[in-house]
TrEMBL record:
InterPro entries assigned: TMC (IPR038900), TMC_dom (IPR012496)
Stretches for region Disordered: 1-159
Entry protein name: Transmembrane channel-like protein
Membrane topology label: Multi-pass membrane protein
Organism: Zosterops lateralis melanops
Record's keyword annotation contains Phosphoprotein: no
Compositionally biased spans, kind Acidic residues: 1-16, 149-159
Entry's localization field: Membrane
Keywords: Membrane, Transmembrane, Transmembrane helix
GO CC field: plasma membrane
TM stretches of this protein: 266-288, 309-332, 347-364, 435-459, 514-534, 602-622, 704-725, 761-785
A Pfam cross-reference name: TMC
Length: 811
């Protein structure tokens, strides 16, 4: 027995040395040695039977190893209850035990073969070592998938499943609320990484049986959908125009200044829609499918104006070639259909004009309703400064510029909160305050009356100049009305600002009073201008009657003087530039609104460059060599005028709504104005202005701006509707020429393009006997809904007060 043991030990040592030699030979193998090994394999083909016997023994050892792995997989469910670190340690220990058992099995198998099998054992060991090395490589690559599949074979109990589900939900909640934890960033990152690994590893095990794969697929698709939604929200935020500029302005100047730029961006979107309607459905079809320039008198510059039609002064005044183009009403032909598409130009022109007003009403009221819903019934000011102190900073900010903006935003919010607290605790002399407020209102009324009389006087003078002929006067007489209105809009808000300092209101209430006074100023100026235009329209209509009579005489003299009686010759061809034409009051109205819009735009730009930029340059560079401190004394840096800029936007938009029916180019001009104003004013605010001394928080909704915009929209539609319904269109220009009223294009379309019964139904529906009760029903419904919303709002406020009182009692 001792000899046999020695032989077995020797054979084992020889086998190990042979295996090491084979590995070394494998590492140093060359093409020559590989050919030698191939010849050796051919030589030893008779030893394959011994290899087969050894393979069966290896298969038995492999089955035992698989049984042990199955037992280990049964313990993975219990390991999942532990921490991930403990589970990994248990798996590593189990693997080392399996390797030790494999080596013992191999040694036992080798020693049991005896001396007579040494030769075959050596070769079998070489082959086994190769298989083992390849298997270890495959195990390293597929260890993760193999363990998952083996664990899936072993069922999980209901208790373990419920416990695992609770842990996964807790980890998910931890991931969602980790940002609010008062931990250091290093701890947050480590806890976040561990929680994400835990969720990724054990979330797929929450299914049952065959439903596990479907559950894992559902979880994967849910994660992908959530990621897509998050990325899409980020994409939508990135696509919002000028969002970062407005955030930067808000961080330095407060929410009140930022509210103006948000309002400007909203107005830009509205005008883009209006521009798309007029450009796509009116201007482009007429330019592409209508008759070209020079084919009709309305599309041709008169002979007397051809010499100066392309001068810069003429084009700047929107006369000459600009007047006889698609920019204005008079260029469009009254032909019912144009082009090969049979495009109905008069109908399109009328519907676009009415649809623009209807869309504006709809979007303004919808925005007001949305803002009213967003307003939650007041701010909760409990522990305001504590919340701002301990919860304002965002610990995930990694950009220095963003951190600076956030710091400035927090500072501004503290200033706003301090102003709110001071105003709530302020005590004042009631009698003195009332006297000063009455005095301020009296001065404001005097200013409004004076500005209205000045505009009325200037408009009367301009009418007198027009009767005598504007070519006999200079630039000031031709542009006197526009210039005076622009100057009043520039200086009167400053005067109102001085007057408002007597009233000692809260900054937010003072802003509303300021907006109301400037609104009254602009409204008076605008309606004075409209009244003057109506007088001018009446003059044009009288002139049109005279032109009609003269054209009849001209045509009769033309035919009587050139064509003999009883002649069958073709009619005489007259150049369109030589044909006499009417005054076309619609084009005149459109020109006035375009000039007023352009002059207002230029006044705004000049005010920014002179009043803000040059003033800031003077204060900045002359402060070192001046007698007093220019930055804190006179003139100092200018503050951003919120009220004047907001009212300028609103009344400019009112002119667009009022004049776009007669000048389709007005929405395009306003889009250009708003686009350039956004960049120019953002630059001026950040470079030339300083924050207000009393930074106040803007209201959560811009409904005050929207209410004024809705009111000016209503007032702007009245003149346009009056001219459409009551005044006859010009007889020789525009798409409605030849009709007694502009709205007759609707009845003409119903007569030619719809069946007769549809026309009758439309006639009954448009009967005033049906329209008036319907309007009354709508008014009553609005009143009921308004009363209901007020009651709900009061109930919400009462509930909020009760919750606050309960919370204070609990403290």
């Amino acid at each position: 027995t001792g000899g046999s043991d020695d032989n077995e030990e020797g054979s084992a040592v020889e086998n190990e040395e042979a295996a090491k030699g084979a590995d070394k030979g494998r590492k140093r193998a060359t093409p020559r040695t590989r050919r030698a090994h191939a010849r050796g394999r051919d030589r030893h083909g008779d030893e394959e039977d011994e290899d087969d016997d050894f393979g069966t023994r290896r298969a038995g050892h492999r089955r035992n190893r698989n049984r042990r792995r199955g037992r280990a997989a049964g313990n993975e469910a219990s390991d999942s209850d532990m921490d991930p670190e403990k589970a990994r340690k248990n798996q590593a220990n189990q693997k080392s035990k399996e390797d030790d058992e494999e080596e013992e099995d191999e040694k036992g198998g080798k020693s049991g073969k005896g001396k007579n099998e040494k030769k075959g054992d050596k070769k079998a060991d070489k082959k086994g070592k190769k298989e083992k090395a390849n298997k270890k490589k495959k195990d390293k690559k597929k260890s993760g998938s193999g363990s998952d599949s083996e664990s899936e074979e072993e069922p999980i109990t209901e208790e373990e499943l419920a416990k695992l589900k609770e842990e996964v939900e807790e980890k998910k909640k931890l991931i969602a609320t980790l940002r609010n934890k008062p931990w250091k960033m290093k701890k947050k990152l480590s806890v976040l990484k561990e929680a994400q690994l835990f969720v990724e590893k054990f979330e797929g095990a929450l299914g049952k049986g065959k439903g596990k794969k479907f559950y894992a697929y559902k979880v994967m698709m849910t994660k992908k959908w959530m990621k897509f939604q998050r990325d899409f929200e980020n994409f939508k935020t990135a696509c919002i125009p000028w969002e970062m500029k407005i955030k930067e302005i808000e961080s330095h100047f407060g929410s009140s200044v930022a509210s103006y730029f948000i309002f400007l961006r909203w107005m830009y979107g509205i005008n883009m829609i209006l521009f798309g309607l007029t450009f796509g459905l009116v201007m482009v079809p007429e330019a592409l499918m209508g008759k070209p320039y020079g084919s009709l008198p309305r599309k041709t510059v008169p002979r007397a104006e051809e010499a100066t039609a392309m001068n810069f002064a003429t084009l700047w005044d929107f006369s000459g070639f600009a007047q006889y183009s698609v920019l204005f009403y008079g260029y469009y032909n009254n032909q019912r259909t144009i082009g090969w598409l049979k495009f109905r130009m008069p109908l399109s022109y009328f519907l676009v004009g009415v649809g623009s007003i209807g869309y504006s009403f709809m979007i303004v009221t919808r925005t007001m309703a949305k803002n009213a819903n967003d307003d939650g019934g007041g701010d909760d000011t409990s522990f305001n400064f504590s919340w701002k102190m301990f919860t304002s900073w965002d610990y995930l900010i990694g950009n220095p510029e963003t951190a600076d903006n956030k710091f400035a935003s927090i500072t501004t919010s503290f200033k706003e909160a301090i102003v709110e607290e001071q105003e709530s605790r302020k005590e004042e002399n009631i009698h003195l305050t009332r006297f000063l407020r009455v005095l301020a209102n009296f001065l404001a009324l005097c200013t409004l009356a004076g500005s209205g009389y000045l505009i009325f006087f200037v408009v009367r003078r301009s009418q007198q100049f027009a009767l005598e002929g504007l070519e006999n006067y200079g630039w000031w007489e031709r542009n006197e009305v526009n210039t005076v209105m622009s100057l009043l809009g520039m200086f009167c808000p400053t005067l109102f600002d001085v007057i408002s300092s007597l009233e000692n209101y809260h900054p937010r209430i003072a802003l509303r009073w300021q907006l109301g006074r400037i609104f009254a100023l602009f409204l008076g100026n605008l309606y004075t201008f409209i009244i003057a235009l109506m007088d001018e329209i009446n003059l044009k209509l009288e002139e049109e009657k005279i032109v009609k009579y003269n054209m009849t005489i001209w045509e009769a003299s033309l035919y009587n003087g050139t064509i003999p009686e009883n002649s069958t010759a073709p009619p005489i061809q007259v150049d369109p530039a030589d044909v006499p034409r009417g005054p076309c009051w619609e084009t005149m109205v459109g020109q006035e609104f375009v000039r007023l819009t352009v002059s207002d735009m230029m006044t705004t730009y000049i005010t920014i460059l002179i009043g803000d930029f040059l003033r800031a340059v003077f204060v900045r560079f002359f402060n070192y060599c001046w007698c007093w401190d220019l930055e804190y004394g006179f003139p100092s840096y200018s503050e951003f005028d919120i009220s004047g800029n907001v009212l300028g936007l609103i009344f400019n938009q009112g002119m667009i709504w009022m004049g776009s029916f007669y000048a389709p180019c007005l929405p395009a001009i306003n889009v250009f104005r708003l686009h350039t104003s956004m960049y120019l004013q953002c630059w001026a605010v950040m470079c030339c202005n300083v924050p207000q001394e009393r930074v106040f928080k803007a209201s959560r909704s811009n409904n005050f701006y929207m209410a004024m915009l809705l009111f000016i929209l209503f007032l702007s539609t009245l003149p346009a509707v009056y001219t459409i319904v009551s005044i006859p269109p010009s007889f020789d220009c525009g798409p409605f020429s030849g009709k007694t009223r502009m709205f007759e294009v609707i009845s003409e379309t119903l007569e030619h393009d719809f069946p007769s019964w549809f026309g009758k139904v439309f006639g009954y529906a448009s009967n005033p006997g049906l329209i008036l009760p319907f309007i009354l029903l709508m008014v009553l419904s609005l009143y009921y809904l308004n009363a209901t919303s007020k009651s709900y709002k009061e109930a919400n406020l009462e509930l909020k007060k009760k919750l606050q009182s309960v919370r204070i009692e609990n403290y």
